[in-house]
Design a protein that fits this description.
It contains 6 helices and 18 strands. It is an alpha+beta fold. The structure holds fe (ii) ion (FE2).
Length: 314
């Protein structure tokens, strides 16, 4: 089946203690490992692999790399060949380079983001187990996020110089990693510029998204919640914990997600969202948003483009 889903994100954080508290108490994650280098590894209750988030102490915020899981180890060899034939350099990181993870195939997306693929990560099970499970575990903390769902990456887009890393990444993901395009934003003369793209390998509207901006970076990592009520309650949890909320609960036109955006203590943007949107299938017609409706695409209710939403990122 090739690429299955997002496996983990590695964020840089400027103060480890407050970052761990944030992801444990606000998102509801659990620390599953700490290494000698000072990295902290966390998982959500509904995830079965050992971790989906790695926090690395640093003097600045941002993302060092993100990884997707493939179904079979042999697919790493096939994909390595395909990526190299496409013209990108790759590297195999031996098993154990990251704790509890098998060998990883590493490469840079056309946008410059460090992406990795792996097939094996230690299985620890969900917190409700897999034999006669309850629908949720006792002692859920904070928002009680189910799983790390997707990431949105900012990619350099400069129509004047003809640089469009959104389009470059999208083409690569579709042609080499067999991702499918669910939605896109087109802009410019004759709608000729692909300014944003949402892509999937699961059956949800996006596992990764690219949005054009002045430079490459991380826009947000996002965690799944069950319902609109859970999104509202996540807002309460954030207010109780004095978390800086970026965008109060609302709905996206794009992907139909119900969402709240906020920042971790280092300024990395997080999202918790609900609503699986629609059944994303390879043969589903691509949804296209034009510049005049972009406001509704991003924030469906107000239709207002919030300037900081696309200009502030790590
Ligand atoms: Fe998102």
């Amino acid at each position: 089946m090739g690429v299955m889903r997002i496996g983990h994100a590695n964020l840089r954080v400027m103060e480890l203690g407050s970052a761990v508290k944030h992801y444990e108490n606000v998102l509801g994650m659990t620390t599953t490992h700490r290494d000698a280098a000072g990295n902290v590894y966390l998982k959500c209750w509904d995830e079965w692999d050992k971790y989906s988030l790695v926090l690395t102490p640093s003097d600045r915020a941002g993302m060092t790399h993100f990884a997707f899981k493939v179904e079979h180890d042999a697919e790493l060899d096939t994909l390595k060949k395909r990526i190299e034939e496409y013209g990108l350099k790759t590297e195999i990181l031996p098993a154990g380079t990251m704790p509890a993870v098998g060998r990883m195939l590493r490469f840079k997306l056309p946008s410059g983001h460090d992406m990795r693929l792996y097939a094996q990560k230690d299985l620890v099970g969900t917190e409700v187990g897999s034999r006669n499970p309850d629908p949720w575990p006792n002692g859920l903390r904070g928002a009680g996020a189910h799983w790390l769902d997707h990431t949105l990456l900012m990619c350099e887009l400069n129509p004047e110089t003809g640089v469009n890393r959104v389009a470059d990444n999208t083409k690569f993901m579709q042609e080499v990693l067999d991702f499918y395009l669910s939605e896109q934003v087109v802009a410019g003369p004759g709608n000729s510029i692909q300014a944003a793209a949402w892509l999937f390998r699961t059956s949800t509207p996006h596992d990764i998204a690219f949005v054009g901006g002045p430079r490459a970076g991380l826009h947000h990592i996002s965690f799944f919640l069950d319902s609109w009520h859970d999104v509202l309650k996540a807002g309460d949890v954030m207010a109780k914990n004095k978390v800086r909320i970026d965008v109060a609960p609302t709905r996206h036109g794009i992907t139909r997600g119900e969402t709240i955006y906020f920042f971790d203590p280092s300024g990395n943007r997080n999202e918790t969202f609900s609503g699986l949107g629609y059944l994303a299938q390879p043969d589903r017609p691509v949804t296209t948003w034009t510049e005049d409706s972009l406001g509704r695409g991003i924030f469906y209710h107000t239709g207002d483009l919030v300037e900081s939403f696309t200009s502030v990122y790590t």
